[in-house]
TrEMBL record:
The lineage of its organism: Bacteria, Bacillati, Bacillota, Bacilli, Bacillales. InterPro entries: CDP-alcohol_PTase-I (IPR050324), CDP-diaglyc--ser_O-PTrfase (IPR004533), CDP-OH_P_trans (IPR000462), CDP-OH_PTrfase_TM_dom (IPR043130), CDP_ALCOHOL_P_TRANSF_CS (IPR048254). The gene is pssA. The keyword Transferase applies. This is CDP-diacylglycerol--serine O-phosphatidyltransferase. Belongs to the CDP-alcohol phosphatidyltransferase class-I family. It comes from Cytobacillus horneckiae. Its EC number is 2.7.8.8. It is a multi-pass membrane protein. NCBIfam families: pssA. Keywords: Lipid biosynthesis, Lipid metabolism, Membrane, Phospholipid biosynthesis, Phospholipid metabolism, Transferase, Transmembrane, Transmembrane helix.
Length: 231
C-alpha cells in the first residue's frame, strides 16, 4: 500500500530526472533528444497530480516536490536548450539572457504556491512554466522550419507572460475528449521525430513513457464517458 502511495512522487522525480538528462543531451549537441525529454517530462507532470488524487495520495511534500521538478525540467533545461542552439553565438550576453527564463519561471511558481487556496481552478494567473518550457522544446524540434528570430521573440514573450497577471484557461477539469487536440499535437510531434530518426537513436525512456501516457489517456477517456453515462 505504501508503494502505491509513492507512485505520484515517483512520477514527479521522473519528471525531474528528465530535466537533468535533457541538460546533459543539450550539452552534448543532441538537441532533439533534449527536447523530447522535456516533452516526456510534460507527460509525467500532467499525470502525477491526477494520479495522486486518484490514489488519494495528495500531500504537501508532493506539491513542493512538483515545483522543484518543474523549475529544472521546464525552466533550466529549456533555457540551456535555447542557449546551445542559438544564444551561444552571443557569448556571455547570450548565456545571461538564457538564464532569465528559469528566474521568471521560478518566481511564477513561487507566486502560485503562496497564492490564495480559493483561487479559481478555471484559469491560471500567467502562463504556467510547464507550458512555457514545452513550447520552447517544440520550437527546438521544429528548428529547421522556425527562424531563430521567432524563437527569440517567443522566448522573450514567455518570460514576461509567466509573471504577468493575464488569466490563462485551465484544462485540469475539462474532460479528455474536449482537449484531445492538445494531446494529439504532443503525440504527433513525438511520432514525427521518431519517424525521422532511427530506432534507438533517441532516449529509450520514450519507448516506455509514450505507451504509459497513451494508456493513461485511454483510462481518462473511458472514465469521462462513464461519468457522462452516470449523469
Amino acid at each position: 500500500m505504501k508503494f502505491i502511495k509513492m507512485i505520484p512522487n515517483m512520477m514527479t522525480l521522473g519528471n525531474l530526472y528528465c530535466g537533468f538528462l535533457s541538460i546533459g543531451y543539450a550539452a552534448h549537441g543532441q538537441y532533439n533528444n533534449a527536447a523530447i525529454l522535456i516533452i516526456i517530462g510534460m507527460m509525467l507532470d500532467s499525470m502525477d497530480g491526477r494520479v495522486a488524487r486518484m490514489l488519494k495520495a495528495d500531500s504537501t511534500l508532493g506539491m513542493e516536490l512538483d515545483s522543484l521538478a518543474d523549475v529544472v525540467t521546464f525552466g533550466v533545461a529549456p533555457s540551456f536548450l535555447v542557449y546551445y542552439t542559438y544564444f551561444y553565438q552571443f557569448g556571455t550576453i547570450g548565456l545571461a539572457v538564457s538564464g532569465l527564463f528559469p528566474l521568471f519561471g521560478a518566481y511564477r511558481l513561487a507566486r502560485f504556491n503562496v497564492g490564495s487556496p480559493k483561487q479559481s481552478k478555471n484559469y491560471f494567473i500567467g502562463v504556467p512554466i510547464t507550458a512555457a518550457g514545452g513550447i520552447l522544446a517544440i520550437l527546438t524540434l521544429l528548428g529547421n522550419w522556425v527562424p531563430n528570430i521567432i524563437t527569440t521573440v517567443v522566448f522573450t514573450a514567455l518570460c514576461f507572460l509567466m509573471v504577468s497577471r493575464i488569466r490563462i484557461p485551465s484544462f485540469k477539469d475539462v474532460p479528455l475528449p474536449k482537449y484531445g487536440t492538445i494531446v494529439t499535437i504532443f503525440l504527433g510531434c513525438l511520432l514525427f521525430v521518431l519517424y525521422k530518426g532511427t530506432y534507438g537513436a533517441y532516449p529509450y525512456l520514450i519507448y516506455i513513457a509514450t505507451p504509459l501516457y497513451i494508456a493513461y489517456l485511454a483510462h481518462r477517456f473511458k472514465k469521462g464517458k462513464s461519468n457522462k453515462s452516470a449523469d
